[in-house]
Specification:
This protein is α/β, with parallel strands linked by helices. It has 11 helices and 8 strands. The chain has 2 domains: about 180 residues, 3-Layer(aba) Sandwich (Rossmann fold), CATH 3.40.50; about 70 residues, no CATH class. Helix content is about 40%, strand content about 10%. The protein has a 6-stranded parallel β-sheet, sandwiched between helices. Strands 6-7 form a two-stranded antiparallel sheet. Strand 4, helix 9 and strand 5 form a beta-alpha-beta unit.
Length: about 260
């Protein structure tokens, strides 16, 4: 059986957000007359990635001593951040547009009569659809995707209105996307840039399901965590160390991997 679907992360895979986050925190520190001690993107990400995986975005602001209340839409950080984003639009990674187009083409119907359904692609992110859709259109790649799981989707699964009850990446979002795409874990790939994405794709149990599902995982080494971290994998108790199925250093490597499963 060929691939039925693919999940693709937004931050650090399609959108060049690590660089923009670095610039934003440096700028917010400047506006608040607070010393920002990180001179390079690498130094910043080493700290940022650790905090974001353990505590969430609010924890990053707290660790850097920067004013922010994630739960307060009236806090001054938000208009400042909106202005920063408007004047510093996010860019796509070099090569990702062509890679996605090539993958999309591989998933179209063709002369092979044994395949009568396309491969569906979806965005999997906790950004809001409202925030990423304009960039998808600006990049000219919106037509490549059949569905998405975003902040609006995950809001339906928050515990008692507590947004901290569900963190991304989450197996909830992956299980939900499998359902929406109508695909099985073993015939779905997940392109992500963090160990969290790997965790979310392993041993998924859908509602009412007896057997677990694990996706084909592809680590994007150009994103937030980098190859050295992705290669370590993570310990899954009795299952030992879980690793990405593939790790790639550049988007141009993606179509060849997908073609091998077709």
């Amino acid at each position: 059986m060929g691939l039925q679907g693919g999940l693709i992360d937004w931050d650090g895979v399609i959108a060049k957000t690590p660089e923009r986050q670095f610039k934003w925190f440096r700028e917010w520190a400047r506006q608040n007359n607070i010393e920002f001690t990180y001179d390079t993107l690498e130094e910043f990400l080493a700290v940022y990635n650790k905090i974001i995986s353990e505590k969430s975005a609010q924890g990053v602001y707290d660790a850097f001593g920067l004013p922010c209340e994630m739960s307060n839409p009236q806090h001054p950080v938000w208009p400042a951040y909106d202005h920063f984003k408007a004047t510093n639009p996010v860019e796509m990674y070099d090569g990702i547009e062509q890679a996605l187009i090539d993958v999309w083409k591989l998933g179209r119907l063709n002369a092979n009569s044994s395949r009568n359904q396309t491969m569906r692609l979806a965005i999997n992110t906790t950004n809001s659809w409202k925030s990423i859709y304009p960039d998808l259109v600006r990049f000219g790649i919106d037509y490549l995707f059949d569905s998405y799981c975003t902040a609006e989707t995950l809001h339906n699964f928050e515990g008692s209105g507590n947004s901290a009850a569900l963190h991304k990446p989450s197996k909830v979002s992956v299980a939900l996307m499998l359902h929406i795409l109508g695909s099985e874990g073993r015939t779905t790939f997940h392109l992500g840039d963090t160990i969290g994405d790997l965790r979310a794709s392993y041993d998924i149990r859908r509602h009412g399901g007896i057997n677990s599902e694990t996706l084909i995982t592809i680590g994007a080494a150009w994103g937030f965590e980098g190859r050295a971290v992705l290669e370590k994998g993570y310990s899954a108790n009795d299952s030992g160390t879980i690793h990405f199925t593939h790790i790639i250093d550049h988007p141009s490597e993606l179509p060849k991997i997908i073609k091998a499963y077709r």
